[in-house]
Design a protein that fits this description.
The protein is of the alpha/beta class. It has a single domain, classed as 3-Layer(aba) Sandwich (Rossmann fold). 32% of the residues lie in helices and 30% in strands. The mean pLDDT is 95. The chain binds uracil. Uracil (URA) is lined by residues 80, 133, 135, 192-194, 197, 200-202.
């Protein structure tokens, strides 16, 4: 069974609390979402493969370790995933980016795919799927199902917020996919929103409500 990594660093928790407030402006909500994503990326990439390269300091030739950013793919689940993508690219600017378009059928709460665009050679790359909210888990499972058809080296899932129901659904379908989150909230409501949560992440990031 893969792990759930709860990133409870004080900076992350502080910013998450500010975001949750209903009177947070679109501007500050979006900025905080990206700042949290940047901070979380340190932990998400803790075990990322590194390679040794030869470099020359002003003093002598030596070796140093570097990440091959091009081998990483951040996959944004549209549209809310885009709201934390930039924060991750801030620290890994060379990463490749994929997009999966899924919408939630409002009655059935199931994920329906409308867009899928990935970099080539996914079987040589490590994938990090990003979506601010892991709620029902249906979009996450659909995204990982689809990505596994392309055979990436590994898949991780990053969200800002989740709940026990979402974790259980993703773990049941994909026990090999570790989850990185800044909070595990109490529960889902009957509309599939997380409680206490932060409302509709997409609407709050893009100011569409
Ligand atoms: N998606 C959101 O944006 N918010 C929730 O609480 C659940 C799913």
């Amino acid at each position: 069974m893969a792990e759930v990594h709860l990133i409870d660093h004080p900076l992350v928790q502080h910013k998450l609390t500010l975001m949750r407030r209903k009177d947070a402006s679109t501007n500050s909500f979006r900025r905080l979402a990206n700042e949290i994503a940047t901070l979380m990326t340190y932990e998400v990439l803790r075990d990322v493969p590194m390679q040794e390269i030869e470099i020359e300091t002003p003093m002598e030739v030596t070796t140093g370790r570097v990440i091959d950013g091009k081998k990483l793919v951040f996959v944004s689940i549209l549209r809310a995933g885009t709201g934390i993508l930039d924060g991750m690219l801030t620290v890994v600017p060379g990463a490749r980016v994929g997009h999966i378009g899924l919408y939630r059928d409002p009655k059935m709460l199931v994920a329906v795919e409308y867009y899928f665009k990935m970099p080539g050679d996914l079987h040589e790359r490590d994938v990090v799927v990003v979506d601010p909210m892991l709620a029902t888990g249906n979009s996450a499972v659909a995204a990982v199902d689809r990505l596994k058809e392309c055979g990436p080296k590994s898949i991780k899932f990053v969200c800002l917020l989740t709940c026990p129901e979402g974790i259980a659904v993703l773990h049941k379908a994909h026990p090999d996919v570790p989850i990185y989150t800044a909070a595990i909230d109490r529960q889902l409501d009957e509309q599939g929103y997380i409680l206490p949560g932060l409302g509709d992440a997409g609407d709050r990031i893009f100011g569409t409500k």
